[in-house]
Specification:
The complex is a heterodimer of chains A (335) and B (530).
Chain A lengths: L1 H28 L4 H6 L6 H11 L5 H13 L13 H36 L4 H15 L2 H15 L22 H7 L3 H38 L2 H8 L4 H38 L5 H10 L3 H29 L1 H5 L1
Helix pairs in contact in A: 1-13, 5-6, 5-9, 5-11, 6-9, 7-9, 7-11, 8-9, 9-11, 10-11, 11-12, 11-13, 12-13
Chain B lengths: L1 H20 L3 E4 L16 H6 L9 E3 L6 E3 L2 E6 L5 E6 L19 H12 L15 H5 L2 H4 E8 L2 E6 L6 H4 L10 H10 L15 E7 L3 E6 L12 E5 L4 H9 L5 E3 L6 H6 L3 E7 L2 E7 L9 H9 L3 H9 L4 E3 L22 H10 L4 E7 L9 H14 L3 E7 L1 H8 L7 E7 L6 H8 L15 H12 L3 H18 L2 E14 L2 E2 L15 E2 L2
Helix pairs in contact in B: 10-12, 11-13, 15-16, 16-17
The chains are: A mainly alpha (335), B alpha+beta (530).
Chain lengths: 335, 530
Amino acid sequence: MIRYFFNRLLLIIPTLIGITICAFAFVRLLPGDPILAMAGEHGVTPERYEILKEQFGYNQPIWMQYFDYIGGVLHGDFGASISTKRPVIKEFMTLFPATVELSLVAMILATVVGIPAGIFAAVKRGTWIDQLMMGTALVGYSMPIFWWGLLLIIFFSGYLGWTPVSGRLDLRYFFPATTGFMLIDSLLAGKPDAFVSALRHLILPSIALGTIPLAVIARQTRSAMLEVLGEDYVRTARAKGLSPREVIGVHALRNALIPVVTTIGLQVGLLVAGAILTETIFAWPGIGKWMVESISKRDYPVVQGGLLLIALIVMAVNLIVDLLYAVINPRIRVK
Amino acid sequence: MKLMKSLLLATTAVVLVAGAAQAKTLVYCSEASPAHFDPGPLTGGNDFDASSRTIYSRLVEFKHGGTELEPGLADSWDISADGLEYTFHLHPGVKFQTTSYFTPTRDLNADDVIFSFERQYKEGNPWLTYLPDMTYDYYVGMDMPKYVKEVVKVDDLTVKLVLTEPNSPMLANLGMDFASIVSKEYADKLQAAGTPELFSTQPIGTGPFQFVDYQLDSTIRFAAFPDYFKGKEKIDDLIFAITPDAGTRAQKVLSGECDVAPYPNPADVAGLKANKDVVVLEQAGLNIGYMSYNTTQPPFDKPEVRHALNQAIDRNAIVEAVFGDAGAVLAENLIPPTMWSWNKDVKADAYDPDAAKKVLEANGVKEIQLWASDRSRPYNPNFVRSAELIQADWAKVGVTATINTEEWTKYREDGKKADRPGAFQIGWTGDNGDPDNFFATLFSCSAIGVSNYSSWCNKDFEDLIQKAKSTSDQTERAKFYEEAQVIFNKEAPAFLLAHSQVYAVTSKRVTGYQMDPLGIHRFDGVDVTE
């Protein structure tokens, strides 16, 4: 198991190097640069452009800029935002809990609803329930997040008035951020009504963000369950008189969960991508919204630092999933 | 019964006391996060809303809802006969804000004014680069280094701005955000403590509101400054709820989560206007959407060709298709009709495809490159759509236009090149309400390669705008600009499209909020009714 863990860990190093190169190159491939973006419609004279290029270090050869950047990263320095002048890592750490909180709730929603829905559809295979569930999952999967989010706002917040439109907390609550997780901070501040408010603010964005993973998990669970339910050992379990709940819950589900867990792990990357749109629509102060604004400002340090940090986290989550996978299926450890 | 009565009285008293103690709060749904709170190095409108217009004041101010100037921190000013010295008499007893992180020991004086400008240009001043890679872009962009020779203290409440050459727009420049007056005492304290960077995150000013807290990308909280020199504001708490999506902002006003929201989607304007629960404010924007012909490149080097191309375009159809319900005013001149010196006698080329066709055929104009960007701007929400309509109009007069679409930053970079071919769609939103900010910024000879996308350098026009710049009498200046508009109209270096309407949505409980032609969102003088 330990050897397996280190093998997986070693694989991360070349991936990380690749990501630093991609992140560095990607942001520079975008048309324009931070100086032009800052100048706006005023424009900038060629002379001043050259002065600023030198001041910002963009006149150096690209490889030198890259190694300067990597040198900083290896010392934990991801640079400072060109726009806000604050350290990238500090901004990331401030905003990251908001994204994690949203993503976690979205993922919990996707898993808690998706797995039972998939199981139910598999058990009721071919019936109208199965058709309805998988049809709904397909619609959910195909729905563009920005459109789905706005629709949720218009209906639940605008028309019914059940949920807040956007943000993380009712503005009348004001307490210092301790962990950055609003659900936890509100309790630490001794404000249970703020906790309720935070929870209410999570409903729509987590539905918008969790819909696609929910659909994927439901479909994956269904197909995995169908495969497992056709296995000999399930037939044996049934033959020896176990109740359907035991057959499905104990024997079939555990094996069916292996590909589902992998799928959940893979959804983490997609959740971050989805968070970019969700956070913009719901004014959610997380790293997705932060990255979008930084790309439009050509804020090189934020974009490359943000991409690298996000990649690190996605890889860490995938590593955990791989380890979980090994726990669920002992054969993987042996391989 | 007695007990019931007592309980009822007690409850009423509690409710009344609670009501009286209830702070008046106004929530503004801002469109983006501010970079920080020091207006000197900032450039974005949303940055200024959260800093210069709330926390700080200037020597002179733009009148609420207009572009005329009025006294700010300076009660009055004198301009020397040669136009080289501006002497400002400061309002006595102006307090800086007292916060949890700074307690001022003195009132505003000339040292603060000198510091506020010197930090932006004086070599060796540590505040010139107190943040990493910082630049004072607006100070440079408004040509201040060229015109400002020095800022001199006459006495504690008198300060003199000495110029290198006369520059009439200077007074309007001093009402701009970059010219906000900051506290030297606070800067000195931070420098001594080795924490100058806090100057941008923990601001201290003399403005109507003082900074309380900023939750990154989420919420900014301000409180009314009790010692504001123009009197404490009616609202106690001002909250900026950062909401980048225009649709969400509108929904937040509708649901009562926000009191004021700027820039609704043009498509939502009609629906919002029909809603009785909100108020839609609108104003002619201080902007112009236009299309620059590169006058150094054939066939655009001939004014008759430029006029003919203008005549071939149906501007009404474009305004209807591009601005939709939001609407826009057809442009007759480069400056909008709300700006002083607008020449009412000048009329843009009328739609006349037949006349255009003859001229274009005679000049052998067959193919044109037509530029469009992917970005939506207030003066042109859809460059691609307007390009398609122009393309169709030109096709009717025998000219084939090829649309070249580029990403916004690259678009402007390529567009300003002196040898750029074709017709280039662009626009401008004014900074300070001075006509110079349109004429000189967009069509002066020195702006070629920077923001003169027509590469147009006309001696007569240039002479007039330079004369207007060095004349202090506004009536005289207006005459020069009116004449400049006649030349512009005759030479037609650009196709003028429209001045767009600008909108804001407010809840019905808001009173005293005014749209601002400069795109500023100000909350001094605003109140809310419960």
